[in-house]
UniProtKB/TrEMBL annotation:
A GO term, aspect molecular function: hydrolase activity, acting on acid anhydrides, in phosphorus-containing anhydrides
Stretches assigned to the HIRAN domain: 14-109
Residue stretches spanning the membrane: none
Alphabetical UniProt keywords: Hydrolase, Metal-binding
Record Pfam families: HIRAN
Organism field: Hymenobacter crusticola
Protein name per UniProt: HIRAN domain-containing protein
């Protein structure tokens, strides 16, 4: 029998990589600060000229670092939920360097009240 999430556990809506990390200035020296299970925040970029459903991903600390975006083609549902006022967040689940590219994976979470 599968374990049932507790009422306080956030629901995982999406598991994905964070796109565009190679274009984020300052991310390479910031990387040692990134920790697995670290909280992330999401922000809609409704005026993006490249993606109608653009969602930015940031660290959740006081000096938030812009890490990149939810991947195009996997972001529409999350963007619609954010537009509708749902409280969403994220959690860093994996980080690794692949040559000069910082590969980051995350979970998008539906947060409780």
């Amino acid at each position: 029998m599968a374990a049932t999430p507790s009422a306080s556990s956030p629901l995982v809506l999406l598991e994905c990589l964070i796109a565009g990390t190679s274009h984020r200035e300052g991310l390479k020296p910031y990387e040692p600060n990134l920790q697995i299970d670290q909280a992330l925040t999401l922000s809609r970029e409704a005026d993006s000229t490249y993606d109608d459903w653009a969602v930015r991903v940031y660290t959740a600390d006081a000096d938030a670092m812009w890490l990149g975006y939810l991947p195009e083609g996997r972001n529409e549902t999350i963007a619609r939920l954010l537009d509708a006022g749902f409280k969403l967040g994220g959690r860093l689940t994996h980080k690794a360097w692949e040559d000069d590219w910082l590969y980051l994976e995350m979970e998008v979470l539906l947060l409780g009240e």
